């Protein structure tokens, strides 16, 4: 007589009943699984049936009632573990249905005709709905796995963005306060009126660092344009007590023509350009790095990849093989196929790390940001002193300008300047953080070249076992060809078809390439430098090195 098999998903019972056979059942403990069902350890107990359970009306409920009653005897019981079954393994592949296995043609069996992925000759416990659940599971697990790999790298980049912006803001406030103190201490007659131009100068510097469409040159020159009417009327000609808007505008517009501050404005532009440019580029690099990580974490899985991952990770469960793991070569083929587009980031990512290293070295050099910002007040002071020293000539020049006439007579005299000595404050926070950051980033140079290998490392594959899963059966070794990384190599991938480069990844590659070329467009130029002039194929470092040559020219 055939055996009656009742199969149910836990937490519930598995019952096999037949003449002369023991009644076997398991009460499972809970554990998360991709289908939301559970697994656990069980005890063992056997009972003999005097009469077999016969298929027919009500037999299913009778069997279940019998087994449920046994479950209340005071301890959990189960059957001895057969070969290939782990007592603590997933029971969840067993599905909620009753099957009568009578061993003759036409008897009800599990319907496998609708399975699209886990198609095997052996009996299966899977359904199409379970395959769909498995596909959702591998998508979720793939995202989580890449997020786990990315975690430290992402933490370093996002953390450095925050730390850099906080440190820069601290430096900016320090430099602005120091410059304001210069006017309040040494140039008191114009201190109140100079407050707004000073504030605008440092606001423009902040906006430039954060990526606004402005330049260091325009910020500095705009400041000196606003400063000249104040210096002329409050220091060179202090008898001018009431400046009209027209007269102030006239002096502002003629500042660049008569050059009252000498070479100091241009020198300040040169001093600020390199350190501010490197800082601006570093902020852009960090944001781009964060975008690369976020995009790769959430890149969509192709249909082929999803199916291949299910076949690799969950199809063995359909045959009760819950402990078996994929062969290493099999896993590498699947992962390299799924991540073919992501691995194409490798070349540009390597060069991107080189650019980060260059920018960090620029900030840590003699042109570092701390020195440039903290020296602004000194350059402004030197410029004002130069204008005072040449006060008579400036007055004579302004007086002959037809558009700048002022009727009041002035008693010209030099204002005695008492310059307060500021305590030198050396801020090494940014330099230290940048060095620590780039040392870590250099270790991530091969991140996208090795991502498939890292995903296949650890518990996912069988490394110390004599058997493994090859996608079809349990074997001693994987015999198919193992392809290398990269999109072109996937033509020969035996496990899945790769149709082409993901458009989102392609966009990232273009962004990295553009950035790595040193930004040979207006958003990355030094003031008055024109194009960087990098030769075709010269790469980021050549373009960036050429840029340093233009500073101050």
TrEMBL record:
InterPro entries: Glypican (IPR001863), Glypican_CS (IPR019803). One of its GO terms (cellular component) is extracellular region. One of its GO terms (biological process) is regulation of protein localization to membrane. It is found in: Cell membrane. Its main location: membrane. Belongs to the glypican family. This is Glypican-5. It comes from Zosterops lateralis melanops.
């Amino acid at each position: 007589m055939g055996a009656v098999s009742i199969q149910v998903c836990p937490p519930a019972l598995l019952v096999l009943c037949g003449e002369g056979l023991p009644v076997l059942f398991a009460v499972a403990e809970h554990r998360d699984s991709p289908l939301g069902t559970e697994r656990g350890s069980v005890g063992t107990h056997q009972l003999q049936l005097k009469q077999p359970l016969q298929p027919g009306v009500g037999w299913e409920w009778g069997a279940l009632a019998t087994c449920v009653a046994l479950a209340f005897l005071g301890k959990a019981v189960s059957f001895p573990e057969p070969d290939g079954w782990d007592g603590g393994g997933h029971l969840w592949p067993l599905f909620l249905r009753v099957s009568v296995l009578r061993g003759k043609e036409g008897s009800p069996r599990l319907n496998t005709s609708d399975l699209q992925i886990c198609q095997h000759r052996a009996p299966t416990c899977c359904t199409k709905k379970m395959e769909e659940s498995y596909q959702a599971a591998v998508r979720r697990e793939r995202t989580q796995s890449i997020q786990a790999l990315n975690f430290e790298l992402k933490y370093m980049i996002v953390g450095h963005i925050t730390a850099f912006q906080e440190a820069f803001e601290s430096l900016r406030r320090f430099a602005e306060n120091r410059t304001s103190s210069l006017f309040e201490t040494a140039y008191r007659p114009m201190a109140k009126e100079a407050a707004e131009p000073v504030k605008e100068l440092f606001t423009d510097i902040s906006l430039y660092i954060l990526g606004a469409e402005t330049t260091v040159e325009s910020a500095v020159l705009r400041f000196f344009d606003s400063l000249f009417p104040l210096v002329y009327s409050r220091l060179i000609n202090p008898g001018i007590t009431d400046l009209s808007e027209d007269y102030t505008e006239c002096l502002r517009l003629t500042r660049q023509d008569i050059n009252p501050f000498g070479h100091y404005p241009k020198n300040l532009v040169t001093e600020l350009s390199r350190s501010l440019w490197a800082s601006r580029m570093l902020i852009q690099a960090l944001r781009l790095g964060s975008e690369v990580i976020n995009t790769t974490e959430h890149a969509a899985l192709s249909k082929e990849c999803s199916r291949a991952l299910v076949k690799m990770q969950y199809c063995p469960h359909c045959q009760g093989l819950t402990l078996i793991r994929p062969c290493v070569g099999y896993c590498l083929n699947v992962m390299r196929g799924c991540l073919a587009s992501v691995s194409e980031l490798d070349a540009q990512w390597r060069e991107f790390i080189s650019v980060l290293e260059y920018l960090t070295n620029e900030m840590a050099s003699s042109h570092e940001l701390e020195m440039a910002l903290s020296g602004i007040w000194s350059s402004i002071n030197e410029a004002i002193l130069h204008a005072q020293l040449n006060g008579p000539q400036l007055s004579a020049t302004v007086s002959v300008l037809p558009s700048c006439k002022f009727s009041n007579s002035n008693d010209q005299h030099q204002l005695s300047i008492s310059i307060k000595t500021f305590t030198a404050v050396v801020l090494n926070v940014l330099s230290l953080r940048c060095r620590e950051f780039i040392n870590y980033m250099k270790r991530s140079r091969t991140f996208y070249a090795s991502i498939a290998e890292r995903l296949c490392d650890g518990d996912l594959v069988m490394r110390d076992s004599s058997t493994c899963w090859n996608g079809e059966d349990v074997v001693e070794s994987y015999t198919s060809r193992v392809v290398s990384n990269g999109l072109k190599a996937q033509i020969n991938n035996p496990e899945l078809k790769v149709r082409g480069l993901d458009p989102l990844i392609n966009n990232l590659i273009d962004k990295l390439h553009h950035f790595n070329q040193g930004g040979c467009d207006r958003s990355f130029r030094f003031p008055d430098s024109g194009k960087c002039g990098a030769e075709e194929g010269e790469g980021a470092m050549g373009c960036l090195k050429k840029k340093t040559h233009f500073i101050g020219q």
